[in-house]
From TrEMBL:
Superkingdom assignment: Bacteria
Record's keyword terms, sorted: Sigma factor, Transcription, Transcription regulation
Gene3D superfamilies in alphabetical order: 1.10.1740.10, Winged helix-like DNA-binding domain superfamily/Winged helix DNA-binding domain
Family matches, as SUPFAM superfamilies: Sigma2 domain of RNA polymerase sigma factors (SSF88946), Sigma3 and sigma4 domains of RNA polymerase sigma factors (SSF88659)
Organism: Pedobacter yulinensis
Record bears the keyword Transcription: yes
Gene Ontology MF terms in the entry: DNA binding; sigma factor activity
Protein name in the entry: RNA polymerase subunit sigma-24
Domain RNA polymerase sigma factor 70 region 4 type: 125-171
Pfam families in the cross-refs: Sigma70_r2 (PF04542), Sigma70_r4_2 (PF08281)
Residues annotated as domain RNA polymerase sigma-70 region: 27-89
GO biological process: DNA-templated transcription initiation
Length: 191
């Protein structure tokens, strides 16, 4: 195993940015299983889940010179969710594929600007959540804490935490879908 115990995941990303293959192997060893489990839970397809995890790590290595990650666990969890979303959307037909291609092409064209716009929209969304739901959402997605940890920390039932996360995630998904659809109709998203 490649795992030095005393190095943080943030430090690993910094070393990877310098082309350190050992740091990349350590990151891979540290997160492969949890990302695979996350993908497999959603897809129920071990082979496809392995491919998606490989895509996440290939993307990290390919973008190592420009990729800056402050919250590695949140970044990786989001990356695998995005891969699962892409895989799921492929099964829904031609329109989704064309839409996804246009969306991704726009994102690649100006990553920094798009990232800032999406970050701003996410901050607005989070600020609009009820206080307890906002706290749970931030703890889970921004601090990478499990539902069990959140429940214990806030003195809540784990199911309550899961329900709050589900409600917030569904609302965010709906808002993003509305934004993407409106923007696609007017041809102005990420342009």
């Amino acid at each position: 195993m490649h795992e030095p115990v005393d190095i943080t995941s943030t430090e690993l990303f910094q070393l990877i940015g310098q082309g350190d293959e050992q740091a990349f192997a350590t990151l891979y060893d540290r997160y492969w299983e949890s990302l695979f489990s996350q993908a497999c839970k959603r897809l129920n397809d071990p082979e496809k889940s392995r491919d998606l995890v490989q895509n996440v790590f290939m993307d990290i290595w390919n973008r190592r010179g420009t990729l800056r990650v402050d919250q590695p666990e949140a970044y990786l969890r989001t990356a695998i969710k995005f891969q699962v979303l892409k895989e799921t959307s492929r099964k829904t037909g031609y329109f989704t594929e064309v839409f996804e291609h246009e969306l991704i092409s726009g994102i690649r064209a100006d990553d920094i600007l798009v990232g800032r716009e999406l970050e701003y929209l996410l901050k607005l969304f989070i600020a609009a959540l009820p206080a307890k739901r906002r706290q749970i959402f931030q703890m889970h997605y921004l601090e990478a804490r499990s539902t069990a940890e959140i429940a214990l920390s806030l003195g809540l039932n784990r199911k309550t935490v899961q329900n709050q996360l589900h409600t917030a995630s569904q609302a965010l998904r709906l808002r993003l879908q509305q934004l993407f659809m409106i923007s696609a109709m007017f041809g102005c998203f990420f342009k």
